[in-house]
Amino acid sequence: MAKSLKANSIRSATRRWFWLFLGPVVAAFIIGFVWPFIQGIYLSFCNFRITADAEFVGIDNYGRALSDPAFQYSFWYTALTAIVSLVIINVLAFTVAYLLTKKIRGANLFRTVFFMPNLIGGIVLGYIWSMIFDGILSAYNTSILLDTTLGFWGLIIVMCWQQIGYMMIIYIAGLQAVPADMLEAAEIDGATSMQTLFKVTIPNVMPSITICVFLSLTNGFKLFDQNLALTGGQPYIIQPDGSTINTTQMLALTIYNTFYTSSTASRGTAQAMAVIFFVLVAGLGLAQLAYTRKREVQQ
Amino acid sequence: MSTKLTRRAFLGATGLASLSLAACGGQPSSSSGDSGEQTASGKGSVYWLNFKPEIDETLQSLAKSYTDQKGVPVKVVTAASGTYDQTLTSEMDKSEPPTLFVIGNQAAVKTWGDYAIDLSGTKIDEECNTDDFNLYDADGKLVSQGYCYECFGIIANPDLITKAGHDVNQITDFDTLKTVVEDIHSRAGDLGFDGFAPADMDDSNSWIYTGHLANLDYYYESRDAGGWKETPATITGQYLPNYKNLYDLIINNSTVAPNTLATGGHDPQTTFIDGKTAFMLQGSWSYPDVSAKVADAQMIPYYGGVEGEQNAGLNSGTENCWAVNNKVSEDDQNATMDFMVWLVTDPDASKQMVAQLGTMPFTNSQPGDNTFLNDAEELNSADKYTMTWDFNYQPNVDEYRKALVSALNQYDSDPSDANWSSFQTAFVEGWAKNYQAVNG
Q1: Angle CA B185–B188–B191, to nearest 5
Q2: How many structural domains comprise chain A?
Q3: Do both A76 and A209 map to the same domain?
Q4: Do both A78 and A206 map to the same domain?
Q5: CA-based angle A253:A116:A132, to the nearest 5?
Q6: Which among A131, A235, A242 has CB closest to B406?
């Protein structure tokens, strides 16, 4: 009886004071995310130099954003980069995780070493890798800034180097959660190691695959720092009319460059691009989550 | 339609009216024209958003002196190198925006001209002794006023040139420059020094080629057109062959292979002051560092083979142009104006400013002791023509220059006619394209 009264009084106090605990988080979320997000959407319908002086212009910015050849080019370039990096990162991260969950000497050391690149910021990473690439490429009389293909693979290598370790940690957690009795049963039933991998292990780590694919897909689309530092969009193809195709420029960098173009409409146009970009990344991410979650098995 | 009304309408439409309270609280009130910190005495205050990190320390000390002397609060904030536009964008959005900021070229006039008062006839305008460095908008409003001027050209080490058997004073045009540079380069192994220390093509150095050296074309095109007053919609690139002459001379007679310029990592100024080259491209701002080791360093004009260039002077101009924010209160504008006048008239303050910035074009400023600027003055008084900074008219400057850098990188790697033609396209057609991008 006394216990029940005490529990009731705690519950009622929680009900009365929950806002005190929830409030700061909600306030921070509104101030730091919801309000800027809504204002960002509003600004995508405006011409502005500074946000306090915005003038509503309707959907003009969206028209300009969608018809901008640089935006279109960087969309397809970003999609290609994101898909290629997604596949390579996840295959390699899973492979490394799989090997490091076997009983090999120094596994913990390897895990730490593989994870460490993730602790370095994108800009620093981009500049360091540009020096490494150019150190090698100068022997062949070229540079990562001179060849689109080299720029593309340079970006992929940097993304892989940075993200494989992070994804590996998630895969290791998933692999360690695969029930030992299932693996033992498979072994007793005479399954080969490949059969065990594809029929038992992978279906059981689908939750990890879901999250890793989601992270690498969205990271690929959002990539900015490494792109800015490694190639800055170079090489450019100079068109006969003087316009340029910035052959290694991804979406986020295109938005940034558009924002700081000197025309009156550029900031609103960049804001419209950012909203389209958000819808795209959110839509792709959610679609992928829905697709891979269907393939998760209940243990 | 007013901004606030529209914002409310928008919020209402999205059903998020509850957030509007936070929105109103978070918005600067600058559009009402009465923002800005007021002092107790109602004198207003000064907030200078400075774009030169190297003078920050001096400005902080001057701000303190002014506050001590006059009791007017002065805040100086310096944007990190290369981020002035971003910093200005965010600072202008605050409830207490800068009262004094920099509008340094025509592109910036386009972007920020609406936020500047007309300086014509103001106290600072009366102090100014030349109109050469002032920037006007299309309506003739004096948007910003040059508060110092600088010069750039080819910095030469006369001792090394003498060692190589030449005389710096004999360099009077492209042909004489070419003879000296190519001779030094051909004997670099024996002499122990080379011709040029070329700047790299990375973001922190490429402006030497895409801004300063490009002026070799812009200046003469502008002169032929009677002097640009605003950004022309197109250019012809008539003097690009002269640009190519000098550019080729620099990259092919240097300490480094041209194809390594793309990624940077070289240090041309150190190379030059260590006596490893006889020439480099730089400006008057490098004088304190250069003169410390090469005491008699001399600055000579850009020679690219243009007819009559024997009469050329140095490239003189500035991007250091003050603008006063028209969105702040009248008290703040007046306080800012008084501060500007004090900086250029007070003997001690103007001495410190001149020591950092070179020469100031104000009647009552202290004279400077920068040899490179004195070279510019000397050439001026010898009836040579000053090459004005017409690169300040580059449209959509960042994007335009990035394309030039990319094209030059290709040319450095493979100096073929096709790659040079691509650079020409970026230079001429790129100008028109970027002009359209900015002006619609």
Answers
A1: 130
A2: 2
A3: yes
A4: yes
A5: 60
A6: A235
Using one digit for the tens of pLDDT, what is the confidence trace for A204-248?
999 999 999 999 999 999 999 999 999 999 999 999 999 999 999
Name the residue in chain B with its Cα closest to that of A55: B3
Rounded (10°) angle between helices A69-100 and A251-259:
140
Q: Which of B7, B92, B263 lies closest to A130 in CB terms?
A: B263
Cβ contact, residue pair A262, B440, below 8 Å:
no
CB contact under 8 A, B396 and A130: no
Of B26, B398, B423, the CB nearest to A260: B398
A contacts of B260 (beta carbons < 8 Å): 138
Instruction: Judge whether A55 lies within some domain.
Output: no
Residues A137, A17 within the same domain? no
Residues A68 and A25 in one domain: no
Backbone angles phi, psi at B181, to 5 degrees: -65, -45
What is the rounded average pLDDT for all residues in chain B? 87
ipTM entry: 0.81
- Residue indicated by tokens 């030094």: B184
Nearest by CB: A35 against B22, B85, B426: B22
Same domain for A36 and A72, yes or no, is: no
Choose, out of B1, B2, B4, B7, the residue to mutate when testing the contact with A (most A CBs < 10 Å).
B7
Mutate to test the interface with A, among B35, B393, B397, B399 (most CBs of A within 10 A): B399
Q: Are residues A170 and A33 in the same domain?
A: no
Full domain range(s) for residue A21? 2-43
Same domain, A20 and A117: no
Nearest CA among B97, B102, B118, B119 for reference residue B327: B97
Residue ranges of chain A with per-residue pLDDT less than 70? 1-6, 262, 297-299
CA A220 to chain centre: 5
Contacts A50 to B, Cβ<8 Å: 89, 92-93
Provide the number of CB pairs (under 8 Å) joining chain A to chain B.
Answer: 142
Q: Taking CB atoms and an 8 Å limit, are A146 and B409 in contact across chains?
A: yes
CATH number of A126's domain: 1.10.3720.10
Residue B253 carries which DSSP code?
Answer: S
pLDDT interval class at B40 (50, 70, 90): very low
Question: Which of B23, B28, B263 shows the shortest C-beta gap to A134?
Answer: B263
Query: What structural domains and CATH numbers belong to chain B?
Result: 32-149+319-363 (3.40.190.10), 152-316+393-439 (3.40.190.10)
Q: At what angle do helices A69-100 and A107-115 cross, to 10 degrees?
A: 170
Residues of A in contact with B107 (CB under 8 A): 262
Question: Does residue A224 fall inside a structural domain?
Answer: yes
A58 CB burial (10 A radius; 0-12, 13-18, 19+)? exposed
Contact B259 A143 (CB under 8 A): yes
In this structure, the strands spanning B321-324 and B100-102 are antiparallel
Q: What is the nearest CA distance from B293 to chain A, expressed in angstroms?
A: 31
Residue A56 included in any domain: no
